[in-house]
Specification:
This protein is mainly α. Helix content is about 75%, strand content about 0%. The longest helix has about 30 residues. The chain starts with 12 loop residues before the first helix and ends in a 10-residue tail after the last helix.
């Protein structure tokens, strides 16, 4: 255990046992568990909907060049370095009557609404230069918002309860909601194909965006008013005694964080595949609604596989389970590419094959989501173990930044790929998009659709092989944290006890 934080009180064995009991106690009732799940449910739906559709929508209906979007992402990625560098220390040092991270659920909401609504309602007829300025500004406002909210939402999971088993139970339950958050937006293409053809496709996409944006607003507000932070934090005096530079140094020395940072960066492979997915389903299969059919089948196995995640964790370890799940998905996508897809021949048969292959890959989505959240919790505990202070804000900001960089890189790659294959949207008189049939273009789309996630998932699995918080290390860590937290609680109790012997809040 780290000795960076000096205990000012004497800790008895009784204090330690009490803290161990605190770490084994269950704190979360159904209402608060539901609040955490719901607070992120809207965001998960939105991330899937916007990830699947925003790039396609802007290049198809708003006249935005893929290169313009890529350049805006490129410039924004550079500036993101600065706002993410300051958000972490601010989050870690925030102390309010509502908690440390919960206030950011509300404070960031207006900026989030602006950055996610405006891309769907830009004025028509703007030049590419004007569109570049608009998208750069929109994306940068969004990145500032996410640099605070993203780490706050991540961190609150690990502050709701000091009980690791209860935390992992919540993670497993939340994973089901994650899967539903992916599944529901995948049904959206049905509306695109089967609403009256007189309704412009652009209007259908805008309506879908408004529904999911409203969901985010309502659910975030509900989470703010319901959730409660419980894990003991360093006091204001302790935080003041630890400089930002020292905190950065402590976080930078955390090996598990660097492993997860690298893993998150390779998420760009999945994002590239997601960006071109609408191009694939529309042009290679003839209907966007085929994406919805695929989503129905590919999402189901995850629900049945997830209950086995905890059993497999006990049997082979959390890290090993995460590694194997990512490598498995990488292999499935690689096999998909090698098998190939001939869009002009036996379209129905090819559709069945692709849905089956995607179902095999999707079976591990729930396991990966569970493992990611659990590994992140171990990382936060590891830093507290080594330094005495939970720098969750700083670590979450770093991870959020890397994820954002990976997503921006994926957008840049997607933009240049779409430009390189010379894709030009075709619309009929009602504004309904028409599939294209150029074999070379369709083959290029297929290659990106399969190889990008194959490479990304494989690299994720290989990077996690270096995660070192497992086995005996993890057991010792939790025992030492019980001692450390007992000291913090006792010190705070003594400091806050008034002359009558009563504990003041």
């Amino acid at each position: 255990m780290a000795d960076t934080v000096e205990m000012k009180v004497q800790i008895s064995q009784e204090d330690i046992e009490k803290q161990k009991q605190q770490q084994e106690k269950e704190y979360l009732g159904p209402r608060e568990m539901a609040a955490y799940i719901i607070s992120g449910f809207g965001d998960k739906n939105w991330e899937t909907f916007s990830g699947n559709n925003m790039f396609f929508y802007n290049t198809t209906f708003q006249g935005v060049s893929p290169v313009t979007l890529s350049l805006a992402d490129s410039v924004c990625s550079i500036l993101d370095t600065f706002d993410n560098a300051i958000s972490g220390p601010i989050l870690d040092r925030t102390r309010t009557r509502w908690g440390r991270v919960r206030p950011y659920f509300i404070l960031t909401l207006p900026f989030w609404i602006f950055s996610n609504l405006v891309p769907w309602i830009l004025p028509q007829g703007l030049s590419q230069v004007a569109l570049f300025v608009w998208f750069f500004f929109i994306k940068y406002v969004g990145s500032i918002s996410n640099s605070f909210y993203g780490p706050a939402y991540t961190a609150i999971l690990y502050n709701l309860t000091p009980n690791v088993n209860e935390r992992n139970k919540l993670i497993a339950t939340d994973t089901y909601a994650d899967l539903l958050g992916v599944w529901l937006p995948s049904l959206f293409p049905f509306f695109v194909d089967y609403l009256p053809r007189t309704i412009p496709t652009r209007s259908i996409y805008l309506g879908g965006a408004l529904v999911f944006i409203a969901m985010v607003i309502i659910f975030r507000v509900y989470g703010f008013f319901t959730l409660k932070e419980r894990v003991p934090l360093a006091s204001r005096d302790e935080m003041k005694s630890t400089s930002v530079f020292k905190s950065v140094k402590q976080v930078a020395s955390c090996r598990p964080m660097w492993v997860l940072l690298i893993k998150n960066f390779f998420g760009m492979g999945k994002a590239v595949g997601q960006n071109v997915s609408n191009y694939f389903w529309l042009n290679c299969t003839g209907k966007l609604s085929n994406a919805a059919i695929s989503g129905i089948f590919t999402g189901l196995p995850s629900y049945f596989v997830l209950p086995f995640a905890t059993k497999w964790t006990k049997k082979i370890g959390l890290k090993n389970l995460a590694v194997l799940s990512y490598l498995y998905c990488g292999i499935v996508y690689l096999v998909m590419y090698l098998i190939g897809y001939a869009p002009t021949e036996n379209t129905f048969v090819n559709l069945i094959i692709i849905v089956f292959e995607l179902t095999l890959a999707g079976a591990m989505n729930s396991v990966q989501r569970y493992c990611n959240s659990a590994l992140t919790g171990d990382m936060y505990d590891y830093v507290e173990w080594k330094t005495g202070i939970r720098n969750e804000g700083m670590m979450s900001a770093a991870m959020g930044y890397i994820t954002l960089v990976g997503n921006n890189v994926s957008s840049i790659l997607s933009g240049f790929i779409i430009a390189a294959i010379k894709y030009q949207p075709l619309l009929n008189s009602h504004g309904v998009v028409i599939p294209q049939t150029d074999p070379k273009m369709l083959q290029a789309i297929w290659t990106v659709f399969t190889l990008a996630p194959a490479i990304g998932r494989s690299c994720k699995g290989l990077s996690l092989m270096f995660f070192n918080v497992n086995g005996k290390v993890r057991t010792q860590m939790m025992e030492d944290l019980a001692v450390s937290r007992a000291g913090k609680l006792k010190e705070r109790t003594e400091v806050n006890t008034n002359e009558n012997g009563e504990i003041e809040e």
